[in-house]
Amino acid sequence: MSDTPPKPPDVPLQIQIDDDVANGQYVNMALVNHTETEFTLDFIYVQPHQPRAKVRSRVILNPKHLKRLMAVLQDGVARYEERFGPIVLSDDGRPMH
């Protein structure tokens, strides 16, 4: 008899999404903070000419998941640029947030 546990059958992951989450949130700024064990991504909407901004969503990931997310985002941007052309970032000297 084998000491390895039997592999569970391949079952597709069923993902559910609430209506509020499915509608999404528009953001135009993100802040990234980290500790030794996790990254915190705050997604923020900044209104023009307003001194305050509100965090619309916070996502906390471990470093391995963040690196996987970075890879899939880089792939997505590369595919976008292949189809629609380069994304040009503003070079006006202002800090990127």
How is the secondary structure organized here?
Elements: H1 19-23, E1 29-34, E2 39-45, E3 54-61, H2 63-84
Antiparallel strand pairs: 1-2, 2-3
What's the quick description here?
By secondary structure, the protein is an alpha+beta fold. Helices cover 28% and strands 22% of the residues.
Tell me the fraction of residues in β-strands, as a range. Answer: 15-25%
Please mark out the parts with pLDDT under 50 across 5 or more consecutive residues, or reply none: none
The largest sheet, given as strand count, sense and whether it forms a barrel, is: 3 strands, antiparallel
Proportion of residues in helical segments: 25-40%
User: How many β strands by DSSP?
Assistant: 3
Q: State the order of secondary-structure elements, H for helix, E for strand.
A: HEEEH
> First CA to last CA: what distance?
58 Å
Radius of gyration: 19 Å
Q: Which structural class matches the secondary elements?
A: alpha+beta
Mean of pLDDT: 91
Instruction: Tell me the number of helical segments per DSSP (H or I, 4 or more residues long).
Output: 2
